[in-house]
Amino acid sequence: MQLGGVSAWLATLPIWQGFTLLVLGGLVLAAIVQVVGDRFLRRLTERIDGEVDNIVLRGIHSALYVTVGVAGAYAGTRVYDISPGVAVPLESGTLSLVILVWMVTLMRIGRKASAAATDNRYIDRQVVPILQNVWSALVAGLGVCLLLVLWEVDVRPLLASAGLIGIIVGLAARDTLANFFGSLSLYLDGTYKVGDFVVLETGERGRVEDISVRSTVIRTRDDILVTVPNSKLSNAAIVNESTPKQKRRIRVPVGVAYGTDADAVEEILLHVAEEEGLVLDRPKPRVRFREFGASALNFELLCWVGNPAQNARAIHNLNRAVYERFQTDGIEIPFPQRDVSVSVTDVPGDLFRQSSAEPFSADGGRDAR
């Protein structure tokens, strides 16, 4: 029997019998969906890793069989010619129940999913509650609007008032909203996370200690906490020294005097890098002859350290070791020098309150002759 034949057969029954039959049929179908769906979901969630998918599927399943259960009453209002005084409230009531069930279900799923995501070490715990609150607000707002439209309540004045209030709040809390959306953009872009070493556009360098809704706290190498608003960070150039890997390359510039054996300099620099414990074996250290300077041959030692926090200490150790080896091997490190010569005979004599033609005595006074 096709669906049209079922509707025609139900139309021949008395209203109370057909309506009751539709309601009971909906409840029976909901029970079937619940039993069969539980078995299907149990097998499906066992094959998928993680808890979020389990929470979402099981949460939607509960709302699904409630929707199927009340569908019989809604179908009864369509099949039978019921008076508008009964049909309209019954139809609106069943749809309102479905909207409320799904609204509560989606909000509950959001809370459980955020709780499961907070335990994930790959997701920032500060941002998950924010996203959960935004999700709950959106679901609640959409559900209330659907209910108002369903009950034929004019929502245009409410939308106008909400728009005006939104403009006022936006102007009053402009900086707060900018920091909030800045934190979201930083999180979604994956710019940095807690524990990363970053270099700000203003030159500060340090470890990220905390990321909140309003600002980011950075601990510099001087053990000073710097708090920067997220709105500024989202629009600034930030160097993350901890990604994609922790190891970092350092550069040690060295200048030697003209005439120095370049092969000897390169051998010394490579030996110093190999002896330093903070320098990694792979990638191997290397030396580059950069340029002919004004007073020196400029070389550069390139090597890698395992953590950006070791950059300064590794450069310090390498500079000391290079200086000691150069002194031991007699390699000169040139530096700018200026020779200034002053001739007394070329200075006008009136500066010394005497004639330049009069000779000076040995003790600095005039000749007694």
SSE diagram, text form:
Blueprint: H1 3-11, H2 15-47, H3 52-79, H4 84-118, H5 127-150, H6 156-172, H7 174-189, E1 197-199, E2 205-211, E3 215-220, E4 225-229, H8 230-233, E5 239-240, E6 248-256, H9 262-275, E7 286-292, E8 297-305, H10 311-329
Helix pairs in contact: 2-3, 3-4, 4-5, 9-10
Give structural notes.
This protein is of the alpha+beta class and 369 residues long. The protein is built from ten helices and eight strands. It has helices spanning 3-11, 15-47, 52-79, 84-118, 127-150, 156-172, 174-189, 230-233, 262-275, 311-329, and strands at 197-199, 205-211, 215-220, 225-229, 239-240, 248-256, 286-292, 297-305. The protein has a five-stranded antiparallel sheet with strand order 4-3-2-1-5. Strands 6-8-7 form a three-stranded antiparallel sheet, covered by helices on one side.
Quick rundown:
With 369 residues, this protein is α+β, with helices and mostly antiparallel strands. The protein has helices at 3-11, 15-47, 52-79, 84-118, 127-150, 156-172, 174-189, 230-233, 262-275, 311-329; strands at residues 197-199, 205-211, 215-220, 225-229, 239-240, 248-256, 286-292, 297-305.
